[in-house]
Design a protein that fits this description.
Radius of gyration: 19 Å
Structural class: mainly alpha
Largest sheet: 3 strands, antiparallel
Number of helices: 8
Distance between the termini: 58 Å
Length: 224
């Protein structure tokens, strides 16, 4: 009984984390060398998703290479979290090309997007990434020597915050964490104002974009 509950828990966790991981785990349970079979099955499913998702209305964003637009970390691609609807993919590619033309050498980095299949399937811990029409973009950063291409303040792009006044409630149950204790461990960098202002103006003027979410104090800081 306990073993069955354990496998059920693993199935749920892998499904919530990567959508396809649970299926791969169920398949691996039929074999003695489960870890090896799981890795092989999960890899096969993830590769197959690259071909099948576009048929069902989702497109993968670039994971590798020197494109002006790509995922911030290969981890998001390993977990199948790099998919969006074709319309959003076009917006992002056009936006990245615009930024690179205005500021040569600029790279636009994508954090979490969506899973390859099923509208309504939750992409935790996000509240709204369930239809292929939402995406998180990394800030553009600068250091002492200027703009930092392909850079985020934290290894995965999240949890390194630009502190400022906020109306968010101080309640852990909201999943809106300040993580003040963690902020001193990140590199001493800051958002690159020129690129951030240009990016927000470009997205704001794009009629295909319905909403931009950003902290009000950053909106004021970038003058948009």
């Amino acid at each position: 009984m306990y073993r069955g509950l354990l496998h059920a828990l693993i199935f749920v966790l892998l499904t919530l984390l990567s959508q396809l991981g649970g299926v791969a785990w169920l398949f691996a349970l039929c074999f003695r060398h489960r870890a090896v079979v799981f890795v092989a099955a999960y890899t096969a499913l993830s590769v197959a998703a690259l071909w099948m998702a576009p048929i069902l209305g989702r497109e993968p964003l670039p994971c590798l290479g020197d494109d002006a637009l790509h995922m911030q970390s290969k981890l998001y691609c390993v977990l199948n979290r790099q998919y969006v609807v074709p319309e959003l993919r076009d917006v992002l590619i056009d936006h990245a090309a615009h930024m690179e033309s205005v500021f040569p050498g600029t790279t636009t980095l994508v954090l979490d997007a969506n899973f390859p299949f099923l509208t309504g399937f939750p992409l935790l811990p996000h509240l709204s990434h369930n239809d292929g029409r939402k995406v998180d973009l990394a800030l553009y950063y600068e250091g002492n020597s200027g703009y930092l291409p392909n850079f985020t303040a934290s290894p995965i792009g999240y949890f390194a915050f630009e502190s400022g006044p906020t109306d968010c409630p101080d309640n852990m149950m909201t999943l809106r964490w300040n993580l003040t204790w963690l902020q001193g461990g990140w590199p001493d960098v800051k958002p690159e104002t020129s690129r951030m202002k240009a990016a927000l103006q470009s997205l704001g003027e794009d009629g295909r974009v319905g909403k931009i979410l950003i902290e009000p104090h950053l909106k004021e800081q970038f003058g948009v």
